[in-house]
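Minutes, project check-in
Item: structure for the 220-residue chain
Input as provided by the requester:
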Amino acid sequence: MKTVLSTKILSLSQKELFLNSGLGLVEYDALKIELLDVKIPFDHNKLIFTSKNAVKAFLKQAQDLDTSNLSVFCVGEKTKSFLQENGLKVVETAHYASELGEILIERYKNKTFLFLCGNKRRDDLPELLSKNNVQYKELEVYRTHLNSKKFQRDFDGILFFSPSGIRSYQLENSLINSTLFCIGETTASEAKKYSKNIIIANKPTVENVLVQAINHYRHP
């Protein structure tokens, strides 16, 4: 039986999808998230989120506030759903930060934004906004820490969801003998430093990464 390692703990439904395929699954969190105790200025009514972790940090402080006047711009369907579940109005969403940046430049150039992010955030969005004179403030609301773990074996496939996850895994393990399933191009760029055996998801979702692995081993 082929065994696949997930570098994040999967939800029950994600796990079932995988285990019903007959593949073995090992999972752990390659990253640890620390929500920071920083004061978020609530005088901004246009917010940018590129991850669910930033939303969690925001919600921690926004519990007793009226958020009905806020307009939210985000990256990723999961982040969008999470925002909407918590009563926030999502105005624009995109698959990638650079894509969201283009939307903001085209449709909201004269607006001012608050970008809530983590310490590992990519430069794509801030650089695009700065270059096109879109006004924004940036606030780091969470930190990503590498959670390295040594495995005494190789895996047939490894599921990666961020460049940081790859850096964390390879601190104590080799990627040479495994097929690497990546959630998107950014993660795949990091994976290419260590391996040529890379498969990229069609859509940047956890479920699609799982489907890629299942299909790969079901139809080798």
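Outcome recorded: The first helix runs from residue 12 to 19.
No further action items on this chain.
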